[in-house]
Amino acid sequence: MRDRPAVILLIEDDETHAMLITRAFEDIKISHEIHWMCSADEALDYLLHKGKFANPKDCPRPDLILLDLRLSVVDGHEVLRAIKGSQELKALPVVILTTSRNDADIVKAYSNYANSYLVKPMGSEMFREMMNDLGNYWLKWNIND
Amino acid sequence: MIKILLIEDNEVDAWMIRKYLLDLSRKEDDVSSTSFDLIWKNSLSTGLDFLTQEDVDAVLLDLNLSDSLGLNTFFQIHQKKTKIPILILTGLSDKELATRAVREGAQDYLIKGELDGRLLDRSIRYSIERNRAQEALLESEKKYRLLINNANESIIVAQDGLLKFVNPMTLKLLEGYSEQELVDRPFTKFIHPDDKSLVVENYRRRIANEAALPRYAFRVVTRAGIVKWVEIHADLIEWQGKPASLNFLTDITESKRAEESLAFTYIVLRTQQELSIDGILVVDENGKILSYNQRFVDMWCIPPDVIESKSDESVLQSVMDKLASPEQFLQKVKQIYQSQDEISSDEVTMKDGRSFDRYSAPMVGASGKYYGRVWYFRDITERKHAEEVRERLVTELESKNTEMERFIYTVSHDLRSPLVTINGFVGFLESDLAKGDSERVKVDLKMISSAITRMETLLKDTLELSRIGRVANPPEAVPFIEIVQEALDQISEKLMQRGFQVTIQPDLPSVGVDRMRIVEVLTNLMENSIKYIGDQPQPCLELGCRLDGEETVFFVKDNGIGIDPGQHDKVFGLFYKVDKKSDGSGAGLAIIKRIIEVHGGRIWIESELGKGCTVCFTLAQPN
User: B360 with B375: CB under 8 angstroms?
Assistant: First the structure.
């Protein structure tokens, strides 16, 4: 068990969705902190300690990355490709969390080594349940230290 | 030796004659003299019997015999041997009868009382000679008659406008008339009405010994009314002491018919050739042009003197400079001429952009003889153009389909997004209400309301987008400056607030558009310029147009933050937003793009990050 709260990097450009995910995570029994990035550029700055994240203290290495696909300017697929293409970052588990059920998106995401592909559910209960399972699976049962 | 049969029942007369002849034989006892051999028969029947067995040179015949009297005696002998000369022996009282016998074919008559050796000798000899001459004449006449009767030409003698002589072939030619029905009839009766004057005039000139056609064709009419073509060859002759025309007529109906059929075939071919949409050229085995149609000349723009030279080589040389790749064409043509049995087709491109399909096939006779080549050229420029248009339309349609798929995907995805928010926060709202956490209730409601607003905007813009193609006002001709002014009127306040300097190019052209829509485009583009002007201390906006080749390109140019080239296409995507927090659905540029496309134009961005942005668009050329 880690001796610190689990770090979740949430990459999501829709503010309401970010709020929704954060709220759904509140009830899980795992100590965690969510770092919300609202664009691809911001997320990559975080991961590579650049720009306003130059100080490593502000950007602890995430235990789990939740990635939305439809981001403005640079989309989620690009972010996924950047992470999985980086020697340093590719080991990080990346879970796609999106509204898209589009086959092309699913195939593309897995081809780029996404660790999991989830579609945002309808309703708070389903959201809570999903986030609970997600937290347990990736942050409790999975060993990735 | 002259062999003579004497038929005489009077023994004394017979004896007398024998004596004369013997004397003659004795008297002329030299080598050259001819002696007589006399055979005496005393009745007609014994005479006839003898003639059945032997030939004689002459017959001396008494008409009154014991078994026959008068002329009958002569006829009996004459019928038996028509070619033997007969001399009648008669008394003074029968002179009249003897004369009649001579009229019927006897050579001479001798009166018994006046007879002597010399007279007998001379009469016999003359009779034999005269008979021989008559026979020869008859023989000769028979020969000529044979020729005339069997001639393959119709032979006619005409005199005084009448037919005087016709041969059997003439009867065959005029079918159905007997000789009696032709001879002494006016020859015009048998000539086709249209040819009468021609024949009559030539006949007149010939008889008058004036210049006349020696040979020409006209039509005759048979008894049944059948028209036949004949060729006449006529000469002036003397006929029974008067000038006449001798005519040889050959039936040329068959060859005339063949000629007409050939002429007809030629007309058919010629008409077909001229009606053809293809240019046609026919060249013989020596490179001489046999035939061509006007279309061929027009297609290749061949000068009249070149085509009239009938030389394939000259024609080929004259079109060289019209071909896109003359060397290649020349090589191909030479190669085709070398391989006589090659049937080939090819596409030829002209310098002026036209395309021809070329077909070539050899003309080979039934026996395998090579007569040359036929060349066909078909202008396929239009067809190729239509094919290109079709291909472009297919590509366009395919891209539209792809666009449609993307549109559906985007709409379903983007509409789903606020639903996720609403659904989620409705749940939280319930639990927050139950807990009485009023702060959280406020947040929940705010999230729900924001998602609803977003959804409304998305739906409104989607509807708007779908309406652009469907509900379009008919295009009107508007000076572009008016559109610019109208757009500026709507937005000038915002521009002034930010301190924009606006430049409008003078001399803007007129356009054929849905005026309101294009005003909307300009307003939208200018709003974008304001939105992305950044911290530019001297904001500028320029509206104008430029000529790209034949195309007029309109533009809205600013000196704002610009757009990264990687984003130039994406910004026109539906619901695309550079900044998620900004107002609107992100459909603005997608709508503009759609409006421009409905106007038959294109829209694109020329910009670099930090160097301002120029949005360019074209419109279909007004008619």
Answer: yes
